[in-house]
Amino acid sequence: MILDMQGAQSSSFANLLQRSIAFVLDWLFSYFVMLPLVAVLNLARGFGGEDTNVPPSEIHESSIGDLWWVPIMAAVITGYFTFSWTHRQSLGMKATGIQVVDAATGTAPSIGQGVTKAFFTVAFGFSALLLLVSGFSDAPEGFNAVDLGVLYSAATVFVISIVGRLWLLRDPKRQSLFDKIAGLVVVKTASKTANV
Hints:
By secondary structure, the protein is mostly helical. It has one domain. It contains seven helices and two strands, in the order H-H-H-E-H-H-H-E-H. Strands 1-2 form a two-stranded antiparallel sheet. The protein is globular, with a radius of gyration of 20 Å.
């Protein structure tokens, strides 16, 4: 199905509420799917097999250093979003009655467009996760320089992502900054548009 993007009315574009609900649903789905994978990887990694003869003064625990599973999770979630968006809809988008299309042609996004949008989405999601995890950490001696560098980077990515998402409030096609970069637009599905 090809949508006419030139003659599209503003009511055919997805609003912030629809997009936010779809975003939250997709991330909840992603996290709950990933929990068993992370649990299995933790078991394979050998939790409980630490050397108990090491004096406590030589043990350095870092809340950020123990997030070894983040790259694996990021790769799987990026794949999920890329696959979903190159097929127009993620599960959250299906639930809210919206879809993503190429802004110029109205066709399904290309793999490059899907990867670009997935990259920005995963960067936003993981920056939020990292800030949340570090906010509840109990590092007894505080954060080291590497930890602080990662936290400042995550905070910067998070703020840029929020501004990029809020961009759609002023855009006539309700495109976020990242939609514009990827050349995409999020629209209501045909059945939802007919009800407007």
